[in-house]
Design goal:
heterodimer, A: 481 residues, alpha+beta, B: 441 residues, PmbA/TldD fold, 2 domains, 41% strand
């Protein structure tokens, strides 16, 4: 269906006297997985559906359907209307006054090596080669390499005549080796599921995919043979892959306006941040700058608009350590009486879920400290990278995270690898222990496909571009914590 | 829905060429939902979806395609035809699958449950409205769930069931406390829903007391059934009962299958009927009525998918690929669950453990934080909420040397997760009394 045809369709199905939008989503995905040198059955997905939103009186209802016939959509529009009328006077806001999309547009991104241009055989050979690289040691008990591609085409039309069309093509490479000596098991991967990017197969070249297998194998064995991480308070350099998780959990979710407003507190949780903290809370030292940036090449949530039609632009959340804004779309910003603070982050995982406030590309801006100086500035401490476990309270205050990749730092040098390393802290004290932010050479564009939130539940991609950072006086622990 | 799916299967078979086999798995739902924030409706709507997974096989190879379909044969023939054509081409480009499991022999069966679903207004009313000193939040979902399997060697299985889930919470406005409550069932019982809501409301009085946060240390504690479910979550998705993970040694419960034991009173099994889950797996194999997983504290059977059975020369019990339970059942014990506070004496009482994750495979060590009703117990009485504290302990220890008693009442806990779709699965668990629950600051 062309955007024009979808617009025309909406005109035919919209209940009279209502405002409606129709979000039409098509997802095409493919996955190839090689496990212990054997190709698992390749899988593909052809997912099509639409969600119609109807505003009637002061209520709003939605209906999602995989029946994209005129009859199916007409019926869905009546169901949504019925929900809108059921909501009347009981909604969190007067939905007739809720912000609406104002501007039409299109957005897509460059792809250097399209997925379709490469044969299945070539892709499978590449995965098998990576999987073979992880072999050669009996202590490696499982090797998995997978490559997923997900292309999503979204068209949003409204009865006001707005039409927005966007395409996102994402790639998710995954390598993991499990090493075991019969009692202990250690896992190594390419970044703990934080390697998703926007683009084509050029991502594999850029990330050195074809050479990753052997280094993952070697690090898995090395970790297995390593001593358990010592416990104690020490200085730490957190690498970009672990910074992804750290910022995601203790900045991103804490700043989501729907959590601050209380919408999310039955499921994912609330936030220690109050609306009155926006513009006044010192989050960290002046070297900390955190932004939502929809314009970073290759980052998974680069985009032109959100799923409610707001145009995307770069905004600051934490500026020189000061909290200036929360993460929220038009409706949340309006509910907080700060409509000017809205940003294009109201997103849905697919056609069958309504959009909610989500992190998009949530990034820490690079600083000016080289990797050598980050590590060189520690007499006795630890390097922590690549997340392996995560636990944080529902207010996003107390947390405890584990990593795959940990090495001691002694006299300014990386020394012994250690295993089962974790660390714990509380959000604001932790960020105020930030002592140095790595420069652009340490900054990596990363992303994850697995951010869960919302009721009904939604899993979305989130982009995080991160430098390595140094923290002072972190509580670090090993197996016995 | 059933006739459309089986017609689709019949049509798919007409498209096969010599030597090809096909499987069709189906997951569908008609869902109404309302999301409540502070007693008001944040979102409300309906979802209707029909997902079919086609698996085409030929010459020892398989390729799969997930299709979202309309439910109208005249519209769905074309995407199915295109998918089979595409899969057929893929099969010609991929190597033989050394572990491709055989399909089950011809079989058929259907399971239909009937029950009343609530009207939209009843759904909204279950969570909406004002509460003195607190705000009501949550999600109410209702509607039919469907599952089916059909194969070209004459397997035809069908499952459909109504299900309503009210998953709510009440949040104090002048204090940080919050109470969780829920109801789930196939036949709407508005009176029971109201009774549970009122019970949660009564618990707010205790939660509004000043927080009495326990210092780091080890505590005698009662863990409610939902807390057991929470602690088991990361262990299950890390392959606790997975035959493949146990064979590879990566399961956190692998030691239980090689000599290590839990307390002899601990018995776990997979029993689909316990939660009304489908009695067949994705490939159409019938599931056993009961798969004993832990018996008398020792590992017995494991969850063996057809592929794992083929790879490791085991006998499959027909479960799905991830080898995670869909209906984990723990046998109750002797302690009167109603007397859990007295049984604790001095210690903690936890309804849930939030955001759990596996910190180490060794010992099945899990970290999480308290949430919802977490209470300090003194002299056998709940005296104050404990606030947010971190838990970090070994589940093997908690169910082994740390286990004091198992409650005599079990709770059916439906799986409320709705990522992608609703799920007809859950767990049946008692509460447990443990010694030395490890609290870290």
């Amino acid at each position: 269906m062309t955007p024009h045809e979808i617009q025309d369709l909406l005109g035919r199905i919209a209940p009279r006297g209502t405002w409606c939008s129709l979000r039409w989503v098509e997802n095409h995905s493919e996955n190839f997985t090689v496990r212990d040198d054997a190709l698992l059955p390749p899988s593909a997905t052809e997912d099509r559906g639409a969600m119609i939103t109807v505003v009637s009186g002061n209520g709003q209802g939605v209906a999602a359907t995989s029946d994209l016939s005129v009859g199916g959509l007409y019926q869905a529009a009546r169901v949504a209307l019925d929900w809108a009328q059921s909501m009347n006077d009981r909604g969190v806001v007067d939905f007739s006054k809720a912000p609406r999309p104002m501007q039409s547009g299109t957005w897509s991104h460059p792809i250097e090596k399209p997925w379709e241009d490469v044969s299945h055989n070539d892709l499978i050979d590449r995965l098998k080669s990576a999987c073979r690289q992880m072999s050669g040691d009996d202590r490696i008990v499982q090797r998995v390499v997978s490559l997923s591609r997900s292309r999503t085409d979204t068209t949003l039309v409204t009865t006001d005549g707005v039409t927005i069309q966007q395409s996102h093509d994402r790639l998710i490479p995954w390598l993991q080796a499990l090493a075991s000596d019969g009692s202990d098991v250690q896992s190594k991967s390419n970044g703990g599921r934080s390697d998703a990017q926007l683009g084509g197969l050029e991502i594999l070249d850029r990330n050195g995919f074809d050479e990753l297998g052997s280094s993952i194998r070697d690090e898995a064995i090395e970790t297995l043979l390593s001593p358990v991480c010592p416990s104690g308070v020490m200085d730490a350099v957190i690498g970009p892959a672990q910074m992804v998780l750290q910022v995601h959990e203790s900045i991103g979710h804490a700043l989501e306006l729907d959590r601050i407003l209380g919408d999310e507190r039955n499921y994912a949780g609330t936030s220690f941040v109050q609306s009155s903290d926006l513009g006044s809370l010192r989050w960290g030292p002046e070297i900390l700058d955190v932004v939502i940036d929809p314009g970073v090449a290759g980052e998974v949530c680069s985009t032109g608009f959100d799923d409610e039609g707001l145009e995307a632009e770069k905004v600051s959340l934490i500026e020189k350590g000061l909290l200036v804004r929360g993460i929220g779309g038009s409706l949340s910003a309006q509910r907080l009486q700060t409509p000017e603070a809205a940003m294009a982050v109201t997103r849905a995982c697919s056609w069958n879920r309504p959009p909610i406030d989500r992190m998009a590309n949530l990034n820490v801006e690079p600083g000016d400290t080289t990797m050598g100086d980050l590590i060189g500035g520690i007499e006795k401490g630890i390097w922590l990278d690549v997340n392996s476990s995560w636990s944080i309270d529902d207010r996003r205050w107390k947390f405890q995270f584990g990593v795959e990749d940990a090495r001691l730092i002694e006299d300014g040098q990386l020394t012994t690898r250690v295993k089962d390393a974790g660390y714990r802290s509380t959000t604001i004290p932790f960020w105020n222990s930030l002592d140095a932010v790595g420069d652009r050479d340490t900054w990596q564009v990363r992303g994850t496909p697995n951010c869960g939130k919302g009721e009904p539940n939604q899993m979305v991609f989130v982009g995080h571009a991160m430098p390595a950072c140094r923290f002072r006086g972190l509580e670090v622990f090993g197996r016995e914590g | 829905m059933q006739s459309w799916f089986f017609d689709l299967a019949d049509y798919s078979e007409t498209l096969l060429t010599a030597g090809e086999e096909i499987t069709l798995g189906f997951a569908g739902e008609k869902t109404g939902f309302t999301r409540i924030s502070a007693g008001k409706v944040r979102q409300a709507g309906s979802i209707e979806q029909r997902e079919v997974v086609l698996g085409l096989r030929s010459a020892g190879r398989e390729a799969r395609m997930n299709l979202m379909l309309s439910g109208m044969m005249e519209n769905d023939r074309s995407p199915v035809r295109n998918a089979i054509d595409r899969l057929s081409k893929i099969l010609k480009t991929i190597p033989e699958d050394p572990n491709l499991p055989p399909l089950p022999n011809s079989a058929s069966g259907e399971s239909r449950t009937e029950g009343r679903l609530p009207h939209k207004s009843e759904l909204i009313q279950s969570l909406a409205g004002e509460i003195p000193g607190a705000e009501s939040c949550g999600i109410a979902l209702t509607g039919m769930m469907y599952r089916g399997v059909a194969t070209s060697n004459a397997v035809r299985r069908w499952y459909e069931s109504p299900m309503t889930v009210i998953d709510g919470s009440m949040h104090l406005t002048e204090a940080p406390g919050a109470a969780k409550w829920s109801w789930a069932g196939r036949d709407w019982q508005g009176g029971e829903v109201s009774a549970r809501r009122e019970r949660a409301q009564r618990s707010l009085e205790l939660l509004s007391k000043p927080v009495d946060t326990p210092p780091a240390g080890e505590y005698r504690a009662w863990l409610e059934p939902a807390a057991i479910r929470d602690l088991f979550g990361p262990l299950l998705w890390n392959g606790a009962f997975s035959a493949r993970a146990i064979e590879k040694g990566s399961s956190p419960f692998a030691p239980l299958y090689s000599g290590e034991t839990l307390d002899p009173r601990v018995n776990f099994s997979e029993r689909p009927a316990a939660v009304g889950a489908p009695a067949f797996g994705n490939l159409g194999f019938a599931l056993p009525d009961r798969i004993p997983l832990i018996d008398g504290g020792a590992g017995v059977d494991r969850l063996v998918s057809p592929r794992t059975a083929s790879e490791f020369d085991l006998e499959t019990n027909g479960v799905n690929g991830p080898e995670t339970p869909s209906a984990l059942e723990m046998q109750p014990g002797a302690l009167d669950s109603q007397n859990s506070f007295e049984a604790v004496g001095d210690g903690l009482w936890l309804s849930h453990v939030h955001y759990c994750n596996m910190a180490a495979r060794e010992g099945a060590r899990v970290t999480g934080v308290t949430r919802w009703i977490a209470l300090r117990v003194r002299d056998g009485k709940p005296v104050a909420p404990v606030g947010t504290v971190r838990i970090d302990d070994s589940v093997i220890r908690l169910l082994g040397e740390g286990l004091l008693e198992i409650g005599n009442q079990v709770e059916v806990i439906p799986d409320n997760h709705t990522y992608g779709r609703r799920h007809p699965r859950g767990a049946v668990l008692p509460g447990i009394l443990v010694d030395g629950l490890r609290v870290v600051a």
